[in-house]
Amino acid sequence: MSLKNAKIFLEELSSNETMQKQLNKMNPKLPEDVVSFAKDAHLSFTKEEMRGVLAEMGALKLTDEELEKISAGAFPTAINSQITDSVTQVNSKILGDAPAIAMGNLYVATSQALSNAAQNAIINQQQNNATMQASTTMGIATIFTLNTLES
């Protein structure tokens, strides 16, 4: 019965453009996606039954192992899900650390700006002290050069 449903589904899919557009819009990546699409069309079968029908038609030439070798492990496996989980965790950590890094950069920039301001203030004080010392020296030298005891 299910093999019959799989055959009916393939016949309808090959002749019905609306059904083809709906399936393409769904963008199935796995055989299970096609099986669930067929269930929505009230045609129930398993992916193994679909493969059997495709093999009878000569449309399916490769086994799962051959597909795995060709795809270099692109199909979901335990290893792939572990890699996916690892990458997801790293991305989450990076996103979680971003505000702290941003605040750290803000603190560094602020401290550099404040240290530049303090350095400029010290340089201005030193220049003012040199100017005051020079003017005091000139004033004292002028006082000593005046002849105040004219009698």
Automatic annotation (TrEMBL):
Residue span(s) of domain Nif11: 1-49
InterPro entries given in the database record: CHP03798_Ocin, Killing_trait_RebB, Nif11
NCBIfam families reported in the protein's UniProt record: leader_Nif11
Name of the protein described by the UniProt record: Nif11 domain-containing protein
Species of the source: bioreactor metagenome
